[in-house]
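Researcher: Let's walk through a ligand-bound prediction step by step. First, I give you the protein sequence. Second, the SMILES string for zinc ion. Third, you return the three-dimensional complex as structure tokens. Ready?
Model: Ready.
Researcher: Here are steps one and two:
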Amino acid sequence: MDRNNRFSALFAQIFTVIALCWFSVSSAYAQSLIRDTEIEETLREFSEPLIRAGGMDPKAVDIYIVNDKSLNAFVTRGQNIFLHTGLILESHTPNQLKGVIAHEAGHIAGGHLVRSDYGTRSAYGSMLIAAGLGLAAILAGEGAAGSAIIAGAPQFGTLEVLAYTRVNESAADQYAAQYLETTGQSGKGLIQFFEKFRYQEVLSNSKRRPYFRSHPLSSNRIDALREVVDESPYTDKPDSEEDVYKLEMAQAKLRGFLDGQQSVFSRYPLSDTSDQARYARAVTYYKGASLKNALNEINALIETDPENPYYHELKWQILYESGRGEESIGPIRKAMSLKPDAPLFKISAAQALMDLPSNDKTEEAIALLKSALVTEPKNSAGWYYLSQAYGKAGQEPLAKYAIAEQSYAMSCFHRSLSFARRAKEDLQRGTAQWRRASDIIVISETQLAKDKKRARQRCQ
Ligand SMILES: [Zn+2]
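Model: Step three, the predicted complex:
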């Protein structure tokens, strides 16, 4: 479907400008982020107690999923933890994954970050994610806000911001053991994880295991960790069944999205009717355009657990992206009723409502997007869809304002400046959006004056 036909010339113009932004970024950076409400929630549940045990505020620590098969995790300034999909998939137990997360949290708590030229950029993490989501939406044309694989975080190539030394590594291990004990969990997972991949230290240049290039392992280090872990009263405490299930479901979903169909079917053969297998197959069928099979699998899952919001969300995605937008509205409404606070659900619902031929639901779409953007004010895809919704509703000044916000979220300051100026001219003086447009003008001008080259590099 060509959206540009459905919107005014203004939107055709905006689309072109943003599409250019995407191409320049994509050619320079290959790595990508994944947004998925369910997996993010599982990771947050695994991480929050550990972060709290480290004396940090879980709300101040952002966790990002990097679409990369290699085994890696790292932290950056601004308290961001990045976990590769390879790490999530190769963790055999929740405890192993939690061990690595605890170790990374230890790096943050220990202040192991070196100075970098990004030091002055405060909203660094949210900038990354905002860029990602927006660009994916543009790439897809329609955009997938459900389980989206997102491309092009512009700064990824230069993220070597941790001082990896043996001293820091050992300190982070000790912190990790402490956090795990404080939260009544075993530290054995981290040791298992290290032992499983110990030989990688020898192959330190191996591309497959960057984690151990940056986190050097030694037998002394593992011994020191084991000493502490063995003393913990929780050393033999197993993972809860619930945590095991959540990790397996996250892995099944990721495999469905990331692996080829053959690989999914060999791991999850049709004879396997577990939730995990059905979940992976539902996704791989949908990706392979086998709509009927995908629906069979997801409907079977919904039957077993009708209150699971993520099943309904996946059903929305299957239908919506198969061109059955109107039918997809029921499932996403159900998902929202089961989980009213998820911003990505709201954005998904808004997409489907805006695609309806009539304008009846446009106001509802606008309300949903505005609500999602309260929770994620830097979600550039949300701003992009909001601009489209305003356009559909004939509110062009607000549409320009939303594009200014979207560009600002992506740190495309010359574009945010241009659209904020145009919006300000047309918006009613003194309104919230008029004031915000004025702010964006000032901030964008300042950013451009400060570092014109970088501001342009980021999105030409
Ligand atoms: Zn480390």
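Researcher: And what stands out?
Model: The CA atoms of residues 260 and 266 lie 10 Å apart. The longest strand covers residues 62-66.
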